[in-house]
User: What shape does this take?
Amino acid sequence: MENLEDKFRDHKFVCPGCKGKLDYSNDLFSCPQCKNSWPLVEGLADFRVSKDKYWGEHPEEEIDRLILRCKQVGWSQALRDFFTVSDPEYYDSIIDKMRANWHFLVPLDKDARILDAGCGWGPLSFELASVYKEVIAFDITMQRLRFIDLRRVSEDLNNLTPVCGQVNHLPFPDGHFDLVIFNGILEWIPVMESKINPYLAQLQALKEAARVLKKSGYLYLAIENRWSVINFLGFKDAHSHLRFAPLLPRFLADIYSRVVRKKDFREYTHTYWQQEKILKEAGFSETKFYSPLPAYRRFQFILPLNRVSRTKFFVRHLFRPRDNLQVFFSRIIRLPFVLNLTKYFVPDFSIFAKK
Ligand SMILES: [Zn+2]
Assistant: This one.
């Protein structure tokens, strides 16, 4: 059993509000300025600013049961028993080692310090902790961090630390990380931070990422493209489940959403230009766009979007159409005029933004 006083004595946490240094004693972090405090809950630091809502795709009681089961039979078997029947794709997404392979594209040393912000069940955190010196798995859902902690102990990964909190209120000092990861979370930020304008909520989160990054550190941002060909074809939006909603002007999407879902449209995705703009506004100096294919949640290829010749090579030699519709598509995409436009219509973006 680890001694928590020892583990957190030399902590680097700051106040999620005022960013001042926190005091630590008796399993409690406290801010001398704000007079707020944050507890250690069974060894995990809990820096959530608002704790009213459970966040997850599955009901809270079920996930509580899963965690209990992990303690009894081990994480691996418990996870398999729990998801392979009810949600096999979800299970794969938790244990898929390929999902972090984009990290070869970031110039990082082995002693890099990484923040996996909104880490979910931690597939990227585990992969990166096996390569780099220090990884923080950061999420708003305590149960997932509990799972990561159990798996971390069983895999003997002492350089991986699960921390609970909100991305818009990071408890880390300025210039602390070499890499910050936003993998499929930016679009959900406005839903979590429901009291402010969706765009401003996302801008705030990106500014927090820039703040905790070292000079010349990188943000890895994976998100769906607002102008994805999938949206134009009328498939349901992955977040709001509303067809065509991302393509509409925001105010129209909002009306549409209020009529159909009885709530605001807050799950903002962005076009190529908008994404570039918001990153600049948040303080990033340089952006490189890639397209993870078929999607960032599970990709086999990651295609650089800055040179048409790469896209051409992919369409000619790597893409294997599986049906007539895909054959048709690959023929269309080969036309030079269309080829020049593909980067604006790819399904997802993987973006490396340098501070
Ligand atoms: Zn404070």
The mean pLDDT is 91. The pocket of zinc ion is lined by residues 15, 17-18, 20, 31, 33-34 (CB under 6 Å). Residues 62 and 84 are 15 Å apart (CA to CA). The first strand starts at residue 23 and ends at 25.
